[in-house]
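User: quick one - fold this with acetyl coenzyme *A bound?
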Amino acid sequence: MPYAHITGWGMSVPPKVLTNDDLSKIVDTNDEWIRDRTGIRQRHIVEDESQSSATLGFEAAFQALRVANLRPSDVDLIICSTSTPEHIFPATACLIQDQLGATRAGAFDLLAACSGFIYALNMGAQAIKSGSAKNVVVVGTETLSRFVDWSDRNTCILFGDGAGAFVLQASDEPGGIYGGVMHSDGSGGDLLTLLGGGSRHPATELTVHTGMHYIHMDGKEVFRFATRVMAQATMDAVAASGWKVEDLSIIIPHQANYRIIDAAARGLKMPIDKFMINLDQYGNTSTASIPIATVEAAQQGRLKKGDKTVFVGFGAGLTWGALAVEWTGPLSTEKSVHPERDRLYGRARSLYRRIVRKIEKIIWGRNE
Ligand code: ACO
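Assistant: Sure. Structure tokens for the protein plus acetyl coenzyme *A:
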């Protein structure tokens, strides 16, 4: 059975930064409260329509392919984890596939809120281990700023926008993604919701008027749930891989709140500096937070070939999960494979197909 290695990684955040002081001009809050209660100092926020979940996801995925030295046309599968898709359909994964020029890839979205990247990574690894795919791109992308009520200080201070992506590749060399756990408890679904615009409550004047298109959260209960599950999920993933917690060089948790990570550290009896934390810079980017933290850990030299780590997260659903990973790095020894060439070819092919579809429509339209 092949192993599923993480061989490429990338991230993208929009340039606009919103600091706690900026927020204090919008809602009744202040920098000290936000830092004390969450650890967050600033977050990145999309501006106009040129920035979206698909554009951020594409940029992260393209970077990841560059690191892996892999052509988009070699990708078999793209899994995009997001709670803020570009549309209900088509899937954001398909928009990213088209932008990349990943002409052979299957593509689908997966929704497990902030735990989504762990679920998506696990699914991508299973596709490789079962032999149905060799090269998989897993993207986590969010633009939660488009769904927060900017007059609700309980939620608007928490979230930021961004994307992260990994390339997974098959290899007979041991390493990569080992054991993991995925859990859910739908009885807590009402603790964190965005109810408007789905099939139960399609968008109407009433759904907009009553704020159903915004995120609603019982922060205290979500906090309680998160502190209960993080340490246990980490231990379960480690046990499923036949490792010990002491084997871990670093733990990369979902970046929601410093106090939640601190509670996990205490639960695991591990020093807090074993945890990668960058939520002060980005806020809670939901499913993108684990890959963004991983990219920065790799850039800072905190993840080296052979290091053992656990990705662990929780989110709406309720969902939670963890994956044990032995860090690899690029497998390819080929000279640069120019992913840009595939991307341009893919764009040209996409344009050609759109034109052909338009011409066919005109011709068939005339014949009817
Ligand atoms: N600025 C100033 N004061 C505030 C703010 C704010 N932004 N927000 C709330 N307060 C006030 C409250 O009104 C309350 O005042 P009161 O005592 O007079 O009523 C006081 O501060 C304490 O509020 P709490 O809600 O008790 O604050 P708490 O310590 O629980 O922190 C927080 C709130 C940060 C939201 C915390 O509960 C939390 O992090 N929960 C987890 C949230 C989370 O991680 N969500 C994402 C899940 S992942 C996903 O799927 C997207």
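One thing worth noting: The chain has a mean pLDDT of 95.
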